[in-house]
Write a structure and sequence with these properties.
homodimer, alpha/beta, four-stranded parallel beta sheet, 44% helix, 17% strand, globular
């Protein structure tokens, strides 16, 4: 399913093609987050035509609670429910159970939690999160894991990794023992945990690799640790994760984080930053980072981004977008989301081109400088 | 500037063409409301390509407070600020001063009010609302008026009409004595007031007509009075307003209201209903009115409207839209707004076609039945 089509000579960066039932995904790739079956503020048409998203994410936790399995099943799966024909990936709900729901309780069996919507009680297990993701019908499913908080002492991290590995075995068993609910193949990715401890990360990477799945993910990063620690852990883990399978760095991150991770051999990314920060007025542009709420943009009638990653970046001015965001207008969120997601997509696709052309490293160096600038 | 191109034989309905500096508007027409320089939840591209809005509204009150005159002037007017090249109309701020701002005080000079944003004190006069609308640069400007509440006793309504007429004289003087700020012609429409009193409405219609402006508007309706009273007042007023000039019924209304008013010789409409009610899950469809939050739509996977007034009406299902609206997702507001506005636009354009074809009355009768249905 995964083919490396190009490698950078000076770094671990690689370009690839990931084949799924709903299409081929060029890597490195960024995946817009569509938590509850919608990339917030973006029409499916804009996702395809303006942003050209090759794959989007769904959140098992949110979708399980609302619209719920009955509706997802009756509609023919999430692709049909939201009318999206390109690939999709769902996380296993692990991260959300620990970050969103109150009164959660961890047992060997799984995680008991209360819905953040109505307080109702539920349990996620390695098995039922596979069953749920079968119904959702994502092309790529994730194994249920515990995402340890940061900072976290060694003893806790160790216990957490042991539990996550135990759960992985059960998830793989369920995955191998069941058929897709819909008529196409689904993949399961294990998640490497282990906080910021090299030995636990190595252990976890070996465990993930040994599961022999179609790809692997790294979780529990970008949760508060310094960026250099994150980059170090990526290096440690990627030494072990198989080179011929895609590597997905979960929930990361800034454009700089993404380029640094690509350099270290990561292929897939997702992050709420382009949409969530966009709604709050933070824009990633070719010239640097903009906080559109700043007074300095009040009368700047130049385009949001003159290098125009999307049509809206050229169509709308900074002053107008500032007016919309400051006024709390929905359109501000829409424009910022389309622009930021397009910027991210153009960034990874340019990285891919540079890798294939053999000049990734020098390009990356120039970009890091520009991307870090605050205008 | 206005040409009647067709008349219905059995009713007062007429089709026309209204020529403005930014384009020709076919009438009857519905004008989406773009309060603060944005039709809430709708990209300008969707306004043109999906909804095909021929003209949109701006609110002088909102735009004066934010972004403010300095920015509007520096940007080259509202058209350039929001990047909209089709016609625009601005109301005079009268209605908003009375409905939105606290501590307003009416004097002969004008209306003193406090900003709903920061509590700052301002005054609107017949003169400065012309000056402001010159800077905004709308193709059609409105004269500053007092919109009497409903119900309202005769004495109050009479006093209010006298004030509005006094203000109209001053607005016309300012309008005639000033040039456009930008390099194109602007029109001024007087507003007929008089609550639900025939004699006051007649007086006010005669006053408006005598001003000899390019068009006339009827205000102070759809403020709580029964629909039949509104229709009656429209008849009374339209007997007097010149037949060779466009008639604009402000802030009205439901699809049924619009067809009834077209039958009585109204040419132009605006209303927040398609967008505001849309955001709350109320949809106007070819089959009737839908409250998408109702449980019955939970597993209805049919398109929002099989007669598809817009692309989104066919692309998205009722069940998905329900999920989005119930979940408070921005995308729900976007889809509902595009659908409802398209529905309104198709309704008035179909009315226009029927008038020209000479079968408006029979078509209207069938439509009224369907449009009133609650699904």
């Amino acid at each position: 399913m995964f083919k490396v089509t190009g490698r950078d000579n000076e770094t671990k960066a690689r370009a690839g093609l990931l084949e799924t039932a709903h299409g081929i995904i060029p890597t490195p790739i960024f995946m817009p987050v569509g938590t509850a079956g919608t990339v917030k503020g973006v029409l499916q048409k804009n996702l395809v035509e303006d942003i050209d998203a090759k794959i989007i994410l769904g959140n098992t936790y949110h979708l399980y609670l609302r619209p719920g399995l009955e509706i997802l099943k009756a509609s023919g799966g999430l692709h049909k429910f939201i009318n999206w024909s390109r690939p999709m990936l769902t996380d296993s709900g692990g991260y959300q159970v620990f970050s969103l729901s109150g009164n959660r309780k961890l047992t060997d069996e799984g995680a008991i939690f209360k819905s953040h919507i109505d307080g109702s009680k539920h349990i996620f297990t390695p098995e039922n999160t596979i069953d749920i993701q079968r119904i959702i019908g994502a092309d790529i499913m994730m194994a249920f894991d515990e995402c340890a908080p940061f900072p976290c002492d060694y003893r806790y991290a160790q216990k957490s990794v042991v539990l996550t590995h135990h759960w992985l075995d059960r998830a793989v068993t369920r995955f191998s023992g069941t058929d897709p609910v819909w008529d196409y193949e689904q993949f399961l990715f294990p998640i490497v945990q282990g906080s910021t401890f090299d030995d636990l990360r190595k252990l976890s990477a070996e465990k993930a690799a040994s599961a022999g799945m179609a790809g692997n993910a790294i979780g529990g990063l970008s949760v508060g640790e310094p960026a250099d620690e994150m980059y170090h852990i990526i290096e440690v883990v990627n030494e072990i994760l198989p080179d011929d399978k895609p590597r997905y760095l979960m929930g990361v991150g800034t454009p700089v984080n993404i380029l640094e991770a690509i350099e270290r051999g990561i292929d897939m990314f997702d992050c709420v930053m382009p949409t969530r920060n966009g709604r709050n007025g933070m824009l990633f542009t070719s010239e640097g980072i903009i906080n559109i709420k700043n007074r300095k943009w009040t009368d700047d009638f130049s385009p949001i981004d003159p290098y125009g990653p999307s049509e809206v970046s050229l169509y709308y001015s900074k002053a107008y977008l500032r007016h919309l965001v400051v006024s709390g207008e929905i359109l501000g969120s829409q424009i910022a989301s389309i622009h930021n997601l397009s910027f991210y997509m153009k960034l990874v696709s340019e990285a891919r081109r540079r890798i294939e052309e053999g000049n990734f490293k020098i390009w990356k160096k120039q970009m890091i400088k520009k991307l870090s600038e605050r205008l």
